[in-house]
Write a structure and sequence with these properties.
Hnrnp arginine n-methyltransferase1; 266 residues; seven-stranded antiparallel β-sheet; alpha/beta; binds S-adenosylmethionine
């Protein structure tokens, strides 16, 4: 299958690890379902690659994206198969039929900067009572780190976008804390606040925390960050000398879908 794409959607297509994880879970969902699916939504469909996977296991896929450029291309790529591509903001779309399967890949680290949580809250009422959502949840962990140069803003630890001289090096100073699991089968609270208590294992200067998000595609399939899925976030905090054995408490607050500007630590 050939997809017409923009540069960004091309990079998403080239991320084989991300794609194969989605392919595997769509295939698995199909094998577990005896009755067959009628309708799937692919929300934030981009190139339409996940719609294409889903088209093999359902009668009809409704694929939506708000980017008119990629929608034009997806309409072309998918024109002869059972996929209807719609150009609209999902948050404004009212669906006619309930879905057996909802695929939604508008993910980002902690669900802070993209609209995944808002989209899930909007579409939950359109999922049949025995319906399936892919992914099913995301899990986020935090680690205390020491970056070699002090960061002056929140940034992604994104190998694709950083040139060699801008690469951020850091040391992990203590344990990781599994601080959040967001379940896509339930209404999501968009305001998030937690107290992180790190146990320090290495002497050093604590000046940031690193957030890593794992995507639970199904009960037995978890996908870590890949080149195009959820690069870890590095969040600068007030710097502090720490020693092995210290316990450090940090409050972390943000708004899901509110943007990285909503992240606060104290
Ligand atoms: C990370 S890309 C994923 C594309 C595709 N699902 C894939 O896996 O290759 C997310 C897509 O969601 C779309 N998107 C984000 N928020 C949206 C919204 N509120 N309504 C419609 N599309 C949205 C973006 O335009 C982008 O194409």
């Amino acid at each position: 299958m050939l997809f017409e794409v923009t540069k960004y959607h091309q990079d998403l297509l080239k991320d084989f690890e991300r794609l194969s994880a989605f392919f595997e879970v769509i295939d698995e969902v199909h094998l577990k379902n005896d009755n067959g699916f009628l309708i799937a939504y692919d929300l934030g469909c981009g190139s339409g690659v996940l719609s294409y996977f889903a088209s093999k296991i359902v009668k009809k896929v409704i694929a939506i994206d708000k980017d008119s450029n990629i929608v034009k291309k997806a309409k072309c790529s998918l024109k002869n198969i059972n996929v209807e591509v719609i150009c609209e903001d999902i948050l404004d779309h009212e669906f006619k039929d309930k879905a057996d399967l909802i695929i939604c890949e508008t993910l980002d680290t902690g669900l802070i900067d993209e609209e995944q949580a808002l989209i899930i809250n909007h579409v939950l009422k359109y999922l049949k009572s025995n319906g399936t959502i892919i992914p099913s949840s995301v899990i986020s962990i935090a680690e205390p780190i020491s970056t070699s140069k002090q960061l002056d803003h929140v940034c992604y630890d994104d190998e694709n976008n950083l040139s060699q001289e801008n690469k951020i090096s850091y040391k992990i100073l203590g344990n990781f804390i599994n601080f959040s699991e967001v379940d896509f089968y339930k209404k999501i609270d968009l305001k998030f606040k937690t107290k992180l208590i790190f146990k320090i294992d290495l002497d050093g200067i604590l000046n940031s925390i690193k957030i890593t998000t794992f995507t639970k595609l199904a009960e037995d399939l978890i996908c870590g960050p890949t080149s195009m899925l959820n690069p870890p976030l590095l969040i600068p905090i007030k710097k502090e000398h720490v020693k092995k054995g210290d316990e450090i408490s940090i409050f972390l607050e943000y708004e899901l879908g509110g943007g990285i500007e909503t992240i606060k630590t104290y």
